[in-house]
Amino acid sequence: MTVTGGRFNYPLMLNLHDRLVAVIGAGTVGRRKLQRLLAVGARIRLVDPQLAGNPYPSELVESVGRGFDSADLQGVLLVFACTDSPLVNRQVATVAAQRQLLCCCADQPQGGDFALPAVLNRGNLTIAVATGGDSPALAALLRDRLEAQVPDSWGRTLEIMAAVRRKWLTEQIDDKYNRQVLRSFSLDRLLTLVEQGKLSEIDQLLKDAFGDAFSLEQLRLQSPGGKS
Question: Which range marks the domain in which residue 202 is found?
Answer without folding.
Answer: 153-214
